[in-house]
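Students often ask why we bother encoding 3D structure as a string. The short answer is that it lets us treat folding as translation between two languages. Here is a chain of 441 residues written in the first language.
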Amino acid sequence: MPLPPPRDSSKGAASTHTLFPTGQGIPFVLVTFLFFLWGIPNSMNDVLIRQFMKSFEISRFQAGLVQSAFYMGYFMLAIPAALLMRRAGYKAGFITGLLLLGTGAFLFWPAAFAGRYGFFLIALFVMASGLSFLETASNPFIAQLGDPQSSERRLNFSQAFNPLGNITAALVGTVFIFSGVELSKADIASRVASQTYQSYLRFETLRVVRPYVVIAIVAFLWAILIWRTRFPHIQSENEDGAEHGKFSELFAERHFVLAVIAQFFYVGAQVCTWSYLISYAQEYAHLPEKTAGLLLTGNFAMFGVGRFVSAYVMGYLSPSRLMGVYALTNVGLLLFAILHPGWLGMWCVFFTSLFMSVMFPTIFALGLKGLGRNTKIGGSLLVMAIVGGAVLTPVMGLISEKMHSIALSYCVPLVAYAVILFYAFWGAKPRVAARVVSATD
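And here it is in the second language, the structure alphabet:
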């Protein structure tokens, strides 16, 4: 079905803008695949949290450090990624990111044989460092590769392949990582007495190796493909020294600063929701491990549906307004899930993925509007905001432990959606003065 022309709300008339870049199909496809690729390790973390709680016998808070190590990699490497691309271009960012991703994924092999939780956290940090390069490069590259008037829709389209990676991760994790063996206290005592418990824990730890080795191989092969492909120069991103962006100019852009804050809370909300969905389903709906894993798979499918549908709806409704309606909906869904934990509450958490789907690419594209020469460093700061996943996820785990309620801990993503609601309706529009300045750059 063809996408409809976007509607200019200021004039009340429809105008036609090209969604896909003309003559740049191969680079567009190669980079769009990256959105699918990084969705796999991102969502595999949700499986790892549950798996490591079992194989290393750790608490929810300790398991939440998986997300902390992962998203700290995003945070610490985003600026270096932007500096590299400012000097060498987007293509260098893609290749560097893929090499780091492959290296980190391959490190799961020695980490599993060493049997050290800390080693896994280091491997996750290296992987996320690579993903920081990929996201810092891919989001602004896609947004700028074509008609600027359709940047939000184009980025939402490419981002729509990210949930396909999420779905793949959940399926792979459920089938190849989850063993389905859940021991009771009596079973554990019996295995300890027979001296087979440690071999069981080692078996559970080794189950994570094969999926990550496959990720490493794919990342290395894709780096070779991108290296051999000619990429376009983004004209609006002149690499001459005089055109380098300045952080001081960025902080004067109110809509951009608020976008960074909104992105911090959005990523925190997304990671929190997905990280503890399996635990919520097991505690309140009493689902077994593998069934809860399949629920997570369906959750990512819902996220993907939201991305594709939203790319279509944005032809009729402004991106910021659509995001605001979605944020308000998620506040209501989570409020019900907190107050009424159970089967209905579980489905409320499940459906938040449909409405969160539009938020990351929309915040990203809206935040970059009118930045001109500051687009690359602006993109790096928006990627750094992904650290919200590292900060809010262990906070949610700590609340869950202290209050003895997973449901109550969902107040964390609820507050995050309230922040996004404010940004969507009141903070996303660039000031007219900022637009005039960017036009003269």
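Translate back mentally: The chain has one domain: 24-231+244-440. Keep this in mind for the problem set.
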